[in-house]
Amino acid sequence: MSHLKSWDEPIAAQYKVEAIPATFILDASGKIVAKDLRGAELKAKIIELLAK
């Protein structure tokens, strides 16, 4: 998500994004349940969470 404010983006500050790309998986309450996963790890985590 971006509002094109670069590193001044409020959401980037909120989630402490320090590099691009950055991935976050949030639960329904907005809590981070996983971050910076890529490839097979990302796919496995999404499958795991969707199975719940």
One letter per element, helices H and strands E, the order comes to HEEH
Provide a count of the helices.
2
Query: Termini separation (Å)?
Result: 26 Å
Helix percentage range: 25-40%
| Rg value | 12 Å
- Count of DSSP E strands? 2
Largest sheet: 2 strands, antiparallel
Can you tell me the residue ranges where pLDDT is under 50 for at least 5 consecutive residues? none
Decide which structural class fits the backbone. alpha+beta
Shape, per Cα inertia axes: globular
Q: Mean pLDDT, nearest integer? A: 86
Proportion of strand residues: 5-15%
Descriptive report:
With 52 residues, the chain is α+β, with helices and mostly antiparallel strands. The protein is built from 2 helices and 2 strands; from the N terminus they run αββα. It has helices at residues 10-14, 39-50; strands at 24-26, 32-35. It has a two-stranded antiparallel ribbon with strand order 1-2. A hairpin with a 5-residue loop joins β1 and β2.
Task: Itemize the secondary structure elements and their pairings.
Layout: H1 10-14, E1 24-26, E2 32-35, H2 39-50
Antiparallel strand pairs: 1-2
